[in-house]
Description:
Layout: H1 13-19, E1 38-39, H2 41-44, E2 61-65, H3 66-69, H4 77-81, E3 87-88, E4 100-101, E5 109-113, E6 116-117, E7 137-143, E8 157-163, E9 169-181, E10 186-198, E11 201-223, E12 230-255, E13 258-280, E14 291-316, E15 319-344, E16 351-379, E17 382-406, E18 420-441, E19 444-462, E20 470-488, E21 493-504, H5 508-511, E22 515-520, E23 523-526, E24 534-547, E25 551-563, E26 566-574, H6 576-592, E27 611-617, E28 620-634, E29 639-657, E30 660-662, E31 670-680, E32 685-694, E33 697-701, E34 704-710, E35 713-722, E36 726-733, E37 739-746, H7 750-755, E38 760-768, E39 771-779
Parallel strand pairs: 1-9, 5-8, 23-27
Antiparallel strand pairs: 2-7, 3-4, 5-6, 7-8, 9-10, 9-39, 10-11, 11-12, 11-38, 12-13, 13-14, 14-15, 15-16, 16-17, 17-18, 18-19, 19-20, 20-21, 21-24, 22-23, 24-25, 25-28, 26-27, 28-29, 29-30, 29-31, 31-32, 32-35, 33-34, 34-37, 35-36, 36-39, 37-38
Amino acid sequence: MRSPRRSKFRHHALSAALLSVLAVPAASAQVAATDSATELDRVTVTGQIAYRDRSEATAPTLSYGLDYFQRFEPLTVGDMLKRVPSVGFVSDVLEYDGARLRGLDPGYTQILINGRKVPGAGGDRSFYVDRIPAELVERIEIIRSPSANRSGDAVAGALNIVLRDAYEFDGGYLRAGALHFDDGKIKPVFGAVSSGEVGGGRLLGGVNVQGRHNPKRKRSDRFDSPDGDFVDREDQSDVRDGTDYSGNLSYTRDIGTGRLSLDGFYVHTDRTETENSREYNDPASRDRARLLSVNDQKVDIKQDNASLNARYVFDMAGGRSEIDLGYARFEDRRHDTEQEVGFDDEDSPPSFDGFEGTRVLGDTRDSEFSLKLAHSRALGAAKMEFGIDGLDKRRTSALRTSEVEAEDEGEPLPPYADFARQASRIEERRLDPYLMFSGKQGRVDWETGLRYETTRSKIRSVAEEGEDAVRNDKNYGLLLPSAHLRFNLTEHDRLSASIARTVRRPDFNQLLPMTLEEEYGDNDFLGNPELRPETAWGLDLGYEHRLGQRGVVGLNLFYRKVRDLIEIVGTGRPSATALDDHDDVIEEFLDDHPGAGPGTPGYPLLDPDSFVFTATNVGDGRVYGAEFDLSTPLTALGLADTGVFLNYSWLDSEVDDDFGQRRFNNQPRSVLNVGFIQDLPTLGMSFGASYRRQGDAYSRVLGEEVSTHYGADLEAFVEKRFGSRVAVRLTGSNLLNASKDENFNKFDTLGEQLDREFDEYEREREKAGPVYQLVVRYAF
């Protein structure tokens, strides 16, 4: 029976992803409080253009307040991050989930919320940033090189999502509106935030309901090689639909010589992903006589993200001490059903060839308890800070799979009753002490420190129900030095230099000692629990110049030397497919030669062409590039009410695999953002546009090579203000009907990939239409 060759939801990595276990390091919050709360209407209904903030941190940091993004009414943190330097995505069109700082895989980027790492669904230890609504956010920080008081899991850098804080804001606002999609669907938008004095302190609360919808159209054309004969065509509709419900609370109160801060947020995602595809043996016809298969798939997803934190900073022993407690929880429940009718095109018209279905039930639960103890004090002309970060993590994943089929045309599928079950569990404990010194001498600000990260993990996995659990323990420690210098040349000009050692822990899909059959073409994959983490020495050199009172222009050069890279290598053992094929050959030989044995002349010998592969630490890699950003009003040209924004990142890298040298997988060659905002004060209006272009990317793994090209993305808005309390905004996104074009080179075995003997060549094009949003904001 034939089936579509490629599905965005169904692939061999699904079992690995749902069985993955994830370790999350703790990080300290670095949220500076202002002396007086800012009125919320200043960032909700405002005629003033906001620009990139100039951070005073010694470590290289870019800071973007919510008002920098707000005119374009972003839906999620992913929509915000697509406008900042060096952040790329390799998601479907209009999906901004796994942020790729410096273009590297999401696992190389540390995602923080209020300075703390949070659990996520990805086996690569990443967090999908489109799960956090933009309305919860106060600002986004890009931390290009880490300090000793932060976790070192940041080879590419860190993205800190700072949520709105009770001490920072005063007042409230309401937000209501709707989104219109090109398939006619309308989704609601609603939000409310209020802050004020309560019980001797300050309390901020917010709620948000965000409709989500993304209808896409796809077409795949398949050939037997890049210049070969046509094989088949697949037409597909792909719709992502859902709603996010979120809320956050923040309470701050001065107690004694210190300040107590309590905060928490909760996000519930209810999402459905639906694919309907038809496969034809003709490049243009949709006639029934050309139909090869009908495939329908629906995935129901329910996710819950929650975090509670308590922080008390107080005077002690001539210095300042901090106690920080945190609890975070992530749950991901998936109900995936795929059904397919196949037709045999050896008959004319193609005849019924079978009806089959697969149901996959996934359940992932992740909880973390974190503790931070820290103390800082003056030490002569310098400041000393020391502390310890602790983390206790528990993560369980379960996967249940049922497959059914009907032999006769018109016969319904039997019930999904017999489920095979797989499960895994991770327990991880970390204690990370650190020591850091900082100070200022003349025009030089400096900071240096040491962090020692210890990890004790226990992994339990069961590949088949009824089998004994496989247990693997792994303990290791890493010393991570860091140093930062900032030289203030003038009041407007400064140079910065940073060096730091960072780490990327292994993907837990690669650690699980389970064999995944046909994970790479006909090749199997076996996890390796002995993997060591990758480490990297990194260098950043930057220059920044202030333009007038509000403008900033900057240039940064970066370099990373990554050691102990984790790559896929062969074990020499034959795959399950090779063994099955060999058994079939032996059976045929015995049918022709009854009573024969291994010593019989001509008895088949095992000569596999597919193998078991595993992950191991091999070789080194390099990542380097340049990042330019500009954010300024055009005051020098007499256009004080015109603001322009430009950032461009050139990205490159080198890594060796079994096939030669390549870039890090899926690293775009560049990321460009350019835009403007024009304010019309006398009319109480503003308008603006933003243009984004991401360079081509390439990925090469065993069995598959993918080239990806994205079309440009254009957004625009127009705003009308009514007094100082009401604003109405109309925004349009994806105005150029952006597309994602991918070319897939597919191979069954390593030898065939080396010899360029194709199993299949596929061209896929995915396209989505414009989205319009009308929002009214009322500040009080």
